[in-house]
Inverse folding.
């Protein structure tokens, strides 16, 4: 079995031989294990940024600043993977606290997002489409389970679809090949940590 920790970073998406050679010469990083070892685990001193080559075991806690290159490393085509935030970023509606006008606003955003989903599903341009938290949008009545089921049934044969979120409708469960139910063991909310942009929504 391949030991990934010892594998050369040359094979890491976005690195390649040239960058791997630079990391080896300047920082002594040549394997996945080296990357895991050198990456700092706490961020306290924000007074300056350090280069990886400057990091040593007896240094104070540091912060690294990095950049995500929009998944271009996964292939020649820069659009092979896309993440499209839609709606207002958080699917929730409390009818006791939010006005009917606010609900209509959210429903309009959901409908607009759904039109994009329909277009992309039927474009036959994708192998996989993940509709994150769509089950909530259905549960709150922003999108109907029927139209989602219809799209699943008429999608291109090669397309896989993943629907996430609680309160999945039985109609969609019946259509699915795989259904997973997650069980809470503990949650950050229980410690007073609120939902964070980029993590929970």
């Amino acid at each position: 079995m391949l030991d990934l920790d010892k594998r050369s970073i040359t094979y890491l998406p976005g690195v390649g031989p040239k960058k791997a050679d630079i990391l080896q010469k300047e920082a002594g990083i040549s394997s996945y294990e080296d990357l895991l070892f050198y990456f700092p685990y706490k961020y306290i001193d924000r007074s300056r940024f350090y280069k990886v080559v400057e990091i040593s075991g007896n240094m104070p806690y540091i912060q690294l600043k990095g950049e995500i290159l929009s998944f271009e490393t996964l292939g020649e085509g820069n659009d092979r993977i896309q993440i499209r935030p839609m709606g207002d970023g958080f699917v929730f509606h409390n009818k006791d606290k939010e006005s009917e006008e606010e609900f209509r606003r959210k429903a309009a955003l959901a409908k607009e997002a759904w039109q994009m989903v329909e277009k992309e599903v039927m474009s036959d341009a994708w192998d996989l489409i993940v509709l994150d938290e769509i089950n909530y949008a259905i549960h709150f009545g922003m999108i109907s389970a029927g139209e989602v089921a219809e799209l699943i049934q008429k999608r291109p044969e090669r397309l896989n679809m993943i629907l996430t979120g609680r309160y999945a409708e039985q109609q969609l469960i019946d259509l699915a090949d795989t259904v997973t139910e997650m069980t809470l063991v503990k949650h950050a909310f229980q410690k007073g940590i609120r939902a964070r942009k980029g993590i929970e929504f």
In short: The first helix runs from residue 16 to 27. Helices lie at 16-27, 32-38, 100-122, 134-139, 145-154, 170-175.
